[in-house]
Amino acid sequence: MALTNAAGARILCASQFPAPDSATLEMHRRRERPITFSVRQMPESIPGARAAVERLRTYPALPLVTTPTPIHEMPGLRAALGGGPRLLVKRDDTIPFGFGGNKVRKLAFVAAQAVAEGADALVTTGGIQSNHARVTAAVAATLGMRCVLIANGSRQERPTANALLDALLGAEVRYVSSREERNAAIDDAMAELARDGRTPFKIPLGASTPLGALGFARAVGEMLDQGPVPDIIYHSSSSAGTQAGLLAGCALHGLATRVVGVSPDDPVASIAGRIRDVMHGMGPLLGVDGAALAGARPIEIDDGFIGDGYGVPSDASRDAQRLAARSDAIFVDNTYTAKALAALIAAVRARRVPADATVLFWHTGGQVGIFA
C-alpha cells in the first residue's frame, strides 16, 4: 500500500460540489450509525507489550481529556473526491479543555509530573500562535500556577487567537526574535523563578517528551475501544510527540495500521530522529525495551506539503481547509492541520490509496488559529 506525495515522490520512511441527492444524504446519515471494522492485527513483537498496555491505562495523568473523542465518517469529503477509500476523522479538536487539540493529551501526563514534583510555575515555548503555549497556559490557570511563555516573534499590537487566549489566561509572555533564542530564554526564566522562591517546571516544545507521548499511545487504545482499526492514520507531525505516541500505541497493540505524519515545517530526517528518540525514551516508562519499541514500526513522514514553512499557509492547505468545511463542516487551521489534510486529499485524488482502504484523519486541533 505505497503512498507518494503530491510531487510523485514516495513518502519516505525515516470546486464544485454535486447537489445533495439521496445517495449523498444517505452517506451523511451513516455518521449516526455504529462504525464497525474487521480487526487486522500483527503478533506481539515487543516482549512485555501486553503488560505495557495495562500499565499505560493506569499511568498518572490529569483528567483533562474527555474521552473518547468522536470518530466520524467524512462522506462529503469522500464524495467530493470522487469516491475512493473510506474516510474517517478522529475529533481531538472537540476536547473541551483549553479549546482542545493534541497538546491536551500530552500535557495531561506532563502536568501530572509537574504536580507530583511540587511545581508552582510552568515554563514553555512556541510561536506567537502556539497551540501548545495556549494549552499550557490553560493548565497553569486551572492548577493555580504561574505560567511563563517564551514566544518567538513580535508582540501583537492587538492580540488575536491563541495570543489573545494566552493573555486572558494570565500567562506572562516573553518574546525572542528567533527559534534559536528560545532555549536560552527558557533557562533564564527558570533561574529567575527559582530566585524568586518558586518551583518552576520546564515543558519542552509541544510537550513532545517520552512522558507526553504516552498520551497518544493511550489514545490508540481509546480508538480501539471505539471500534476502528484503520489501514492508515494521517496526522500533522512536527515536534514528534504525537507520531511517536501513535506509533508506540500501534506497536504495543499489535496493529498493522500505518501512521503517516505530514510535516508543516521540518524535513523528514529531522522529525524522524526526534520520533526515534522519544519512542526510545518511552520504553523505560512502560517497562519495555526502548530500542525495540523505537524500531518496531517504520517511521513514515511526508514533507511535501511544507510550502513556505511553519505558520505559513499554502494553496494546498487553503484548499483543504475550504473543502473540509464545505463538505463535512469540519474546521482546520490553514497553516498546520490543513497541511496534513492536504496530503491525504492529494493521495486520494491521485488514487495512491487503495479504494478498499479505511483512512483515519486524526484531527489534532488548532482551529483557534483560524482567527489569527
- How would you describe the shape? globular
Name of the CATH first level of the largest domain:
Alpha Beta
The number of distinct β-strands equals 11
N-to-C CA distance: 38 Å
What's this entry about, in short?
This protein is α/β, with parallel strands linked by helices.
Overview of this protein structure:
The protein is α/β, with parallel strands linked by helices. It folds into two domains: 13-99 and 209-371, 3-Layer(aba) Sandwich (Rossmann fold); 120-198, Rossmann fold. The chain is 41% helix and 14% strand. It is built from 13 helices and eleven strands. It has helices at residues 22-29, 49-57, 75-80, 102-116, 131-143, 161-168, 182-195, 210-226, 241-253, 268-286, 290-294, 315-328, 337-349, and strands spanning 12-13, 71-73, 86-91, 121-127, 146-152, 172-176, 200-202, 232-236, 258-262, 300-302, 358-363. The strands form two sheets. A seven-stranded mixed sheet has the order 1-10-9-8-11-3-2. Helix 4 crosses helix 8 (210-226), helix 5 runs parallel beside helix 6 and helix 8 crosses helix 9. The longest helix has 19 residues, at 268-286. The protein is globular. Mean pLDDT is 89; it is low at 1-21 and 23-42.
